From TrEMBL:
PROSITE patterns: ABC_TRANSPORTER_1, ABC_TRANSPORTER_2. Keywords: ATP-binding, Nucleotide-binding, Transport. One of its GO terms (molecular function) is ATP hydrolysis activity. This is ABC transporter ATP-binding protein.
Length: 251
């Protein structure tokens, strides 16, 4: 595998993760080696229980490994202490969740600015311009003084995307970002993610069950039973569904 940090924004090597006691051990990941390429929109797919969330949590520094090593850029995060990990996550990683995870008591602007607030600083002039551009391109300009509950699900997810992109993180993790949205709104959100990657060079890793969502990605990595079993370039929803069916039959 190419391990250059010019091309890879994150990578895991020989990654293993087990849960439970010795008698009841569950191997969630088995010897996974994978690089996430810089500037690409990568989808991570696989059946329920195949290890997608575990892989994402470990790459984001939210969960520990049982074996193997993990890098974000050229920083090996496997050996970082908790407080260093928290700072690294705050500065270099963005998150978009299925349930939006906006702060209900903050207005939309303060939700978008939250990563800066948590980092104890204000956006620079250049960052302010970038945020204004994001707000305009996501159509949130008229909503900045509203609270999250006053917005539709699709609008809330757009706020979460603006928040995730605001600090220009090395990598945005999206966990089933369209899981709570209808199909038209899902397409809008996926188009925004694909555009962020194509036009701004934002690296994105998205966990999804949905072949249509995965078809927006540049690359699709399939997990089964804790291991990478396929690694595809851009594919149609039909190709992805066909592959998933084949994998289910083989299982
Ligand atoms: N905290 C935990 N304690 C015990 N077992 C766990 C824990 N987290 C995950 N597992 C187990 O690890 C395996 C992989 O789980 P994981 O959540 O990563 O799969 P997934 O592909 O994300 O599934 P889904 O699509 O259903 O969210 C499963 O067998 C799961 O039961």
């Amino acid at each position: 595998m190419d391990t250059s940090t010019d091309t890879l924004v994150a990578r895991v090597e020989g990654l293993g993760k087990s849960y439970g006691s010795i008698q009841n051990r569950v191997a969630a990941l088995r010897d996974v080696t994978l690089g996430i390429r810089r500037g690409e929109f990568t989808a991570i797919m696989g059946p329920s229980g195949s290890g997608k969330s575990t892989l994402m949590h470990i790459m984001a520094g939210l969960d520990s490994v049982s074996s193997g090593r993990v890098w974000l850029g050229d920083t090996e995060i496997t050996s970082l202490a908790d407080d260093a990990l928290t700072i690294l996550r705050r500065r270099r990683v963005g998150f978009v969740f299925q349930s939006f995870n906006l702060v209900p008591t903050l207005d939309i602007e303060d939700n978008i600015l939250l990563p800066f607030e948590l980092d104890g600083r204000r956006p620079s002039d250049a960052e302010r311009q970038w945020i204004d551009q994001l707000v305009a391109s996501l159509g949130l300009g008229a909503r900045l003084r509203h609270r999250p509950h006053e917005l539709s699900g699709g609008q809330q997810q757009r706020v979460a995307i603006a928040r995730a992109l605001a600090t220009r993180p090395d990598l945005v993790f999206a966990d089933e970002p369209t899981g709570n949205l209808d199909s038209r709104t899902s397409r809008e959100v996926l188009t925004l993610l694909a555009t962020a990657s194509r036009e701004y060079g934002q690296s994105i890793a998205m966990v999804t069950h949905d072949p249509i969502a995965a078809s927006y990605a540049d690359r699709i990595v399939f997990l089964a039973d804790g291991a990478v079993v396929r690694d595809l370039g851009k594919s149609t929803p039909e190709e992805i569904s066909g592959l998933m069916l084949g994998m289910e039959r083989a299982a």
